[in-house]
Specification:
This protein is α+β, with helices and mostly antiparallel strands. It contains four helices and eight strands, in the order E-E-E-E-E-H-H-E-E-E-H-H. Helix content is 38%, strand content 20%. The strands form two sheets. The chain has a five-stranded antiparallel sheet with strand order 1-5-4-3-2, with helices on one face. Strands 6-7-8 form a three-stranded antiparallel sheet, with helices on one face. Strand 7 and strand 8 form a beta hairpin.
């Protein structure tokens, strides 16, 4: 994850979490014939912005987190948090993420994953995973799911995935598995957004 300054004219889409953290989708260094209109994503990690590269899969660009990698990271976070603070909303979010992964794996059947996902454990924070490396990229996860500490939150990851599937589906309207994965990601995002806005100690 790289700290970055960007100009307003590079921003294609701006989205925010329920707590106000931004996620900016930028056309900076967009590869030729890109399936989506952005490549770089600048994420508010708490007082600063850090960038990652994102692609649908290995056929779209030679660098960046793929959809399947981002879903796997989101699942790790959701599973750890649901185990720590179980709730109906967390459980339903987890269920939709598993469905999204299933649909995405079916969509990319026969396409090998080019990069291995590496997650570093930091148990002293009470959160199972704090840093992830994927190819040349990496990101630090927030030790608190609601984003009171620095790092990328689950809700921000789901916003990235939601925008990725929305834009890819516009270019590939006949891809049923793509649409299915996108629906489940969207549901997971709505559930996580509701959960993070609950009062401290709320467990709906």
């Amino acid at each position: 994850m790289t700290m970055i300054d960007i100009s307003d004219d590079e921003i294609i889409v701006e989205r925010r979490t329920g707590k106000g953290r931004f996620v900016l989708f930028c056309e900076t260094d967009l590869p030729n014939d890109s399936l989506i209109p952005w490549w770089s994503v600048v994420i508010d990690i708490g007082g600063d912005g850090a960038a990652i590269l994102v692609r649908l899969d290995e056929r779209q660009a030679d660098q960046g987190f793929t959809a399947v990698a981002l879903i796997r990271i989101a699942l790790v976070i959701a599973e750890a948090d649901n185990e720590r603070r179980p709730s109906v909303l967390a459980g339903e979010c987890l269920r939709h993420l598993r469905k999204a992964l299933e649909a995405e794996l079916q969509r990319r059947e026969g396409l090998a994953e080019a990069e291995a996902l590496h997650l570093d454990r930091e148990s002293s924070h009470g959160f199972a995973w704090l840093h992830v490396e994927y190819g040349d990229g990496g990101m630090t996860l927030s030790a608190d799911p609601s984003g009171t500490e620095e790092g990328v939150t689950l809700e921000q990851l789901l916003i990235v995935l939601d925008q990725l599937y929305l834009d890819a589906s516009r270019r590939l309207p006949g891809d049923g598995r793509l649409a299915e994965a996108g629906v489940h990601v969207g549901q997971a995002l709505r559930l996580e957004g509701r959960r993070t806005l609950l009062p401290a100690g709320g467990r709906r």
